[in-house]
Amino acid sequence: MSLRPKRVVFAGTPAFAATLLSALLEAEVPLVGVLSQPDRPAGRGRKLTASPVKSLALEAGLAVATPPSLRKPEHRETLEAWAPDLMIVAAYGLILPPTVLSLPRHGCLNVHASLLPRWRGAAPVERALMAGDEATGVCIMQMDEGLDTGPVRYRLTVPIEDTTTGGALEASLATLGAKALLTVLSDLSLPAHAPEPQSSAGVTYADKLSAEDRVLNFAESALAIARKINALSPRLACSIESEDSLRIRCLGAAAAPETPVAGAKPGTVLCCNKEGLFLATGSGALRLHQLQVLKGKAAVLDAPAFFNGYGRHLPVGSRFASAQ
Question: Which end of the chain is less congested by CB atoms within 10 angstroms, N or C?
């Protein structure tokens, strides 16, 4: 006999989770309510703004609750009233205490953006890119009280290209996660969807991103710097500043092994042309090919547009430093 939940609660907050919620709505999964984090200040005016998940849920006419925590009984009243037999969690941002994990009859499923047990924790997409992983994926995990330690019901894998950015990979994994989630929800009782304990080998942790992660150290290798730039683009993009106070957000980068460095100090401009802005590093040359100058309308520029607008301001031998 097939097993399909009849009362489902979804818990999530950012765009990644909204993609999953949209797929659930399109598939007509029986959602009885949505949890999301409380509205936060956003934009230049710091106006209170609903999360992408809350906004989508309200548009769809779903019941929404935004408790600041789920630890206190009064914060769980709405969830308990919904009486879910399954809860789906994706980038929710709040810890689920044991009382919540055990509330649904079929427990809680988490859509995690890595190939567990690699990159348990808060920033699996960015950490995979920074580490130079050749592949990543999504896991549909049966949640337990540990940090992403629960058994995995289903997983899908996707290769990582050298130029992949964090934003692009996250969007791709959200779509992949929706496919994996709907596959599992089609029948929880199938042997192919049975929870499989994670291996004790290969465990790594994706620590939460901090301000220090955005600092570029040009003494590092061009490959390591490019990986960091791409991983944090565009949401937490790294910035650099020239000697003439030209500030630039770095949105796309690659190592340029064919470009000679010839003993130039790290951060030195090697050249600027229609292929990009080339900087010396501790090992090899770095090519910045998608940039945003932080002045005026701050448009995102590809390499030719940047060269046409700013190349004359960046003579060979001028230098850059990191600037958050």
Answer: N
Structure-token pair, residue 265: 């100090």
Q: For 4, list phi and psi in degrees, rounded to 5.
A: -125, 125
3-class state of residue 64 by DSSP = strand
Residue 84 covered by a domain: yes
Which residue is listed with tokens 């650099």? 240
Sheet containing strand 8-12, strands side by side: 64-65, 31-35, 8-12, 86-90, 108-112, 135-142, 152-159
Determine how β-strand 47-49 pairs with β-strand 64-65: unpaired
Instruction: Compute the distance between CA of residue 284 and CA of residue 184 in angstroms, rounded to an integer.
Output: 46
CA distance 57 to 53: 6
The reply to whether 263 falls in a domain is yes
The verdict on 262 and 279 lying in the same domain is yes
Cα gap 207→38, rounded to integer Å = 23
Digit-coded pLDDT (tens) for 125-151: 999 999 999 999 999 999 999 999 999
State whether 118 and 249 are in the same domain.
no
Domain with 102, as residue range(s), is 8-206
88 plus 234 within the same structural domain? no
Read off the CATH number of the domain in which 315 is found.
Answer: 3.10.25.10
**Is 0.90 surpassed by the pTM of this model?**
yes
- Phi–psi pair at 107, nearest 5 degrees: 75, -160
Between CA 216 and CA 75 the distance in angstroms is: 41
Closest CA to 316 of 261, 245, 251, 246: 261
Take residue 252 and report the two structure tokens written for it.
């796309």
Q: How far is CA 41 from the centre of its chain?
A: 20
Residue pair 294/306 in contact by the 8 Å Cβ criterion? no
Last residue of a domain, one of 206, 226, 255: 206
| Cα dihedral: 24, 30, 33, 34 (round 10) | -10
**Nearest-angstrom CA–CA distance, 92 and 169:** 19
pLDDT, tens digit, for every residue of 250-284? 999 999 999 999 889 999 999 999 999 999 999 99
